[in-house]
Amino acid sequence: MCQLLGMNSRLPASLTLSFSGFAQRGGGTDHHADGWGIAFFETVGEAPGKGVRNFVDTESACTSKLANMLRSFPIKSHNVVAHVRKATVGSVTLENSHPFVRELWGRYWVFAHNGDLKEFAPNLHSTFMPVGGTDSEAAFCWIMQELAKSHAGMPSVEELTLTLRELVPQVARHGTFNFLLSNGQALWTHASTKLCYVVREYPFPEVQLKDEDLKVNLADLNGPQDRLAIIVTEPLTTNETWTPLVSGELMTFVDGSPVMVAPQAAPMPIAA
Question: Of 5, 68, 179, 197, which residue has the fewest beta carbons closer than 10 angstroms?
C-alpha cells in the first residue's frame, strides 16, 4: 500500500516540515520506495491560483535528490497533495507516479490514491484517459469524466461535494479507496481504511516528528491568522491529537478546516 499526505491552508503555507517526515516513509522508516510525488497549487498574492507545480520521481523519496531539495525549499500553497508509492498495479515509471493531474472547467485537478481496486474497468471516453497503467489513474479519470457529465460548468464546492458523495462509493466498492483530490479551491479526502487529520492554528504547539528526530515550535513558523489542516495516512507527530476518518467518509477541507456539507434533500413529491 502507498501513503498519502495533504495540506489545506487558510493562508499560503509551506509543507516542508511535514514533507520532511513523510519522505522518510518512502524507503526509510517504511517500505514505500517505488516512487513519490508532490503537487503544489500556486498562490497569487495570498489567494489560491490555478497553476500547479507537480514533481514526480521513480526514485525513493528518502534518497531522491529532488525530494531533498523540496524538503528545504519552502513552496507556499493553499493546497498540497503528496504520495509515496508501493507499487501493486503498474510498473515503477513516471507515468504511474502520483499525484496525477487533469484539467476540467479551466482548472487543474490533482489526485493521489492509496489502495487496490479489484475488477475495476470503467468505460472511459476520449476526454479523460489514463497515460499509465494504474487502477488509481483510471479511477481519477472516471471521476473527472462523471463530474463533467454531472455539471455543465464549474459548480460550488458544496455542489462538488454532494456529487462526489454519489460517485465515490461506485469506485470504493471495488476495494480500498483512500484518496486526496483538489482543484485548488478545496481539498477532498476519502477513507476506506487509514486516513487521519489535524488542524493546526493559534496558539501553535511544539511538535515532535515521528519519522525523524526533529522537534519544532510551530509558533516560530506561523502567525495568529494562520490555520492549516494536515491529512495523512498515519500520524506524522507523536504529541498531537490526530482525528481518524471513519471508513467510507468523504471530507471537504476549505481554509484550513473541515467543512460540513448537508446531504442533498430528497425531491418533494409532485402533488396529484
Answer: 68
Give the count of domains, the chain. 1
- Give start and end residues of each alpha helix (H) in 59-212: 65-72, 135-150, 157-172
Residue 272 lies in a domain: no
Q: What is the set of active-site residues?
A: 2
Domain limits at 220? 3-259
pLDDT of 51-97, one tens digit each?
999 999 888 877 888 878 887 788 999 999 998 876 666 678 899 99
Residue 269 counted as domain residue: no
Q: Is 237 exposed, middle or buried (0-12, 13-18, 19+ CB in 10 A)?
A: buried
Tell me whether the omega of the peptide bond preceding residue 12 falls within 30 degrees of 0, making it cis.
Answer: no
For 225-261, the pLDDT digits (tens) are 999 999 999 999 999 999 999 999 999 999 999 998 7
pLDDT for 213 beyond 60: yes
Asked if the structure places residue 265 within a domain, the reply is no
Owner of C-alpha cell 535528490:
65
User: CB neighbours of 148 closer than 8 A, spacing ≥ 6?
Assistant: 104, 105, 127, 128
Q: How far is CA 242 from CA 28, 71, 189, 190, in A?
A: 23, 23, 15, 16
Q: 63 exposed, middle or buried (CB, 10 Å; 0-12, 13-18, 19+)?
A: middle
Pick from 102, 107, 134, 109: nearest CA to 120: 134
Query: pTM (2 decimals)?
Result: 0.91
